[in-house]
Design brief:
binds 4'-deoxy-4'-aminopyridoxal-5'-phosphate; binds glutamine; about 375 residues; alpha/beta; globular; 12 strands; single chain
Length: about 375
Amino acid sequence: MISLSSKLPNVGVTIFTVMTKLAGDAGAINLSQGFPDFDVDPELRELVAKYMASGHNQYAPMQGVPALRQRIAEKTKELYGASYDPDTEITVTSGATEALFSAITCAVNRGDEVIMFEPAYDSYLPAVLLAGGKPVYVTLKHPDYHIDWNEVKDAITSKTKLLILNSPHNPTGAILGREDMAALTDILAGTDILIISDEVYEHIVFDGHRHESMTRYPELARRSFVISSFGKTYHVTGWKLGYCLAPRQLSAEFQKVHQFVTFASNTPTQLAFAEFMGKKEKYLSLAGFYQEKRDRFLSLIKESRFQPLPSLGTYFQMLSYEAISAEKEIDFARRLTTVHKVAAIPPSVFYVGGDDHKTLRFCFAKKDETLIAAAEKLCKI
Ligand code: PMP
Ligand code: GLN
């Protein structure tokens, strides 16, 4: 056997793969990994088929199909008032995962400190480690998972290179507000610290709140890589298409990495989105669509012993099971899947220290019949 000295010795298989496999093996309803169980809009599917059938099957331009970059620029201008040049400041990527990896790789040099907020989406840390960066964690405050900006201020040193933010936040459903953006602006004033803003759930914000995109704030936008995902917005997580917005110099460095991670992303889906994005109501109605799902799920489990935490965005709902069990999240998630036949994600895996609040994350991007069946099981526990 040839052995390899691991670059990521402490990294295992991602929890999403683990729980989805366990759900499949146990025949459980899978509310763990975040993906819809309903189908893509037939019109969008037909557009992809149309572009495939009409011969658009070779490499797209490295930065992405021009018509799609134009659409992204228009949407960003309309929703957030920010101007990005489609020729030099927008890159289409193979999912947000690739955008995060490329942004982290181009931003972080050996020894740079990177401030992240835990619980943190699990793709950030491996990318930071591979770039030779040093992770510095600030913990979101349970139970509403807000940021204590004094802690952020204290975490900043002369070696701080980058902050990775995520709003709406996976796994907690917390969102950043205007006061957060003001605090962030204050703290970063006079520094060269960069931001990666993971905004893949930008269109899924509830209860009349607005999405605080980094692009709205020129002082923040000028130091930011802003990342989104078509997978979340159009119910097509399997198509792996996303994008990154960043000022010209940052985009140039981003593209140096992007072109050798993937070169270019899938051509027919890019062309399909370029056409489909003209139907603005599709993304403008998404928040209402998912708010209804959240409310339906919450009303279905009202009589259960699970206690909901606030979910102001994303398609995830955190539920405390403190009234049911004192087990660790990982153990309870496993038992919930194998015995009670509902799979969920234990957020403790998103903390370096494994912080355990006896809470699980449930994905409600599901057909009503799936939510009803899952809730019936949860109510019996
Ligand atoms: N960031 C967050 C917060 C996510 O939840 C996800 C995936 N669900 C991603 C990034 C990755 O998105 P994509 O599937 O487009 O790679
Ligand atoms: N982002 C999705 C989630 O949070 C899963 C992504 C993945 O499976 N890698 O569930």
